[in-house]
Amino acid sequence: MTEDQNYREAAGSFGAVAAEYDRARPGYPEELVDALERLWGRGLKGARVLDVGAGTGIATRLLAARGADVVAVEPSPGMAAQFLASAPTLPLVRGGGDDLPFHDHSADLITYAQAFHWTYPERSVPEAVRVLRPGGAIAVWWNVHDDTVPWIRARDRRMAAALPARYSGYGGISSFTGHFEPAGLTVGRAVLHWERRVTVDHVLTDLTSRSYLASLTPEERAPVLAAEREAMLTEFPDGVVVEPFALDLTVAVTPS
Q: 3-146+170-196+244-253: which CATH topology?
C-alpha cells in the first residue's frame, strides 16, 4: 500500500467510530479561544467562521458558544451524521479543506481543530487564503498528550510496538504550518497546558477513535485495547486517570 493509500485509509476511518469520537475525545479549555483572539487581534463574536474537518462538532460548538457565526465543513458521511445528531441547530456543509465550497473573500476565520494534517497544505493554504477576507486568519490546533509525563511516554512506546506501521506519535506541526509564511501570512503560536479527569474506560474509548486504531477491524483492535486496559489499570488501579494535554495552537493572519 502506498503512503497516499495509507493516508486515505486513515482519513476515511473516522466515520465508523464517530459515536466514540464524540463521546470520548477531549474538548478544549476556554483559554483556547482567548489565545486565538489574542493571536488574531480581533474577537470571535459576529465573525464568519468555517470550521473545516469539523468532525462531530466539538470545536464548532465551542466557537458558536463564543458568538461566532460558524459553519461546519466535514467530508465524512459518518462524522457528518454524528455532527447533526450532536449539534442539530448548527449549519453543516459537506466538503474538505483542499477544495472549499465557498466564494472568494466570504469568511473571517477558518479553523482546523485536530484536522489540518488531513489536508494537503500546498492545496489547503491557497484555498483558505482565497476564501478569507483581508485581515482574516487560519487557526489550526491539536490537543497533544503531554509526553513530559512518564505514563504518556510509556503508552507511546506501547502503541509504537503494537502498531509499528500505523503509529508514529506526534511529530510537531512545523511540517504542516511551514506553508503559512511563504503564503504571506503573519504567524503566531501558543501552547496551552491543561488536563481532564476521566476513567480508564473513557481513555480506551478515546483510543478507539484514533486513526491508528480506527483503521483496524474490531478483531484487530481488540488485543491492542485489552493490553492497554491491563497496562492502564496497573498504572491507575482505581480506574481514574488525570490526562494531561499540551494544546498546540497556530494562528496565521492574512494582510489587511
A: Rossmann fold (3.40.50)
